[in-house]
Amino acid sequence: MTVVGLGPMGAALADALLAHGHPTTVWNRSPHRAEPLVTRGARRADTITEAVAASPLVVVCLKDYEAMYAVLDPAADALSGRLVVNHSSGTPEEARAAASWADGHSVGYLDGAIMVPVPAVGRPDAVLLYSGPEPLFTAHRAALESLGGATYLGADPSLAVLYNTALLGMMYASLNGFLHAAALVGTAGVSVESFAGIALDWFLPSVIGTILRSEVPQIDARTYPGDAGSMEMNLTALDHIVRTSAEQGVDVDFPAALRTLAERAIAEGYAANNYSVMIEVFRKQRAAVS
Ligand SMILES: NC(=O)c1ccc[n+]([C@@H]2O[C@H](COP(=O)([O-])OP(=O)(O)OC[C@H]3O[C@@H](n4cnc5c(N)ncnc54)[C@H](OP(=O)(O)O)[C@@H]3O)[C@@H](O)[C@H]2O)c1
């Protein structure tokens, strides 16, 4: 196996391959980053061409897709007939363009997304997502499993980065929800530790997780019965959060943004539906942003 890109994440991928006993060749633009890996048994390639020629599977982990082209373009001939598994972060369009670039050079291509921090790489419970031609994933699955739990998403090469971005968006929304709530109860002198016992240990899994999970079939069916709670009711609740935040002297922008979204749903005719109808609001893009 060859690993191209030895930042914190690329070095962790190389270490995981070494730990699983794979002969591993490494290359990095700044060569000194290879030294600790060489000490642990990796072979350092002096040039990118030598690096990609050393193995049928080339694991790439660079800052972004632009860096990937800067590194791999000069070695495109040597890559022909090999498989590139690109773990660099980017957008779906960039992933599709990379798959076309690879195709144009007769290079196999899988796109990957690493969903765990550096210390978790190589553990079986680590989550790494892959997309691209299924036969390529199946043929190299065992090697990829050395990096962590490898989940295949589908043939469209953009799926891995699309899932990655969607899950990160969900993460930031959830983090903000908890942190705003902790700031709010903190105005009464409640420690975050004390609040976490209710918010994270019970409310998040048992209330939010359970309710949302039970509504998934209806969301897929695009039916949002509001008999147990309508958008009108939810708007009142969101208004209470805005007013309570103002009364307690904490940020109101975050709950106000949520209230604005609920108002938009009601203006679009969803007043009698349940909260999951918000997905219909999110499905429409209102203004282009860069
Ligand atoms: N670190 C994490 O926790 C984490 C988690 C999930 C996903 N990822 C993703 O993994 C990828 C790598 O992340 P990282 O944490 O290892 O560090 P990074 O700072 O994102 O990337 C560092 C690597 O990119 C190389 N690089 C940057 N620009 C380059 C260029 N123009 N030409 C050639 N090489 C270039 C660096 O080479 P030099 O050493 O020569 O500068 C180094 O090998 C990123 O896409 C990141 O989003 C990281």
From TrEMBL:
Keyword set includes Oxidoreductase: yes
Oxidoreductase keyword on record: yes
Domain of life: Bacteria
The entry's keywords: Oxidoreductase
Protein family (similarity comment): Belongs to the HIBADH-related family.
PANTHER family: CYTOKINE-LIKE NUCLEAR FACTOR N-PAC (PTHR43580:SF2), OXIDOREDUCTASE GLYR1-RELATED (PTHR43580)
Name of the protein described by the UniProt record: 3-hydroxyisobutyrate dehydrogenase
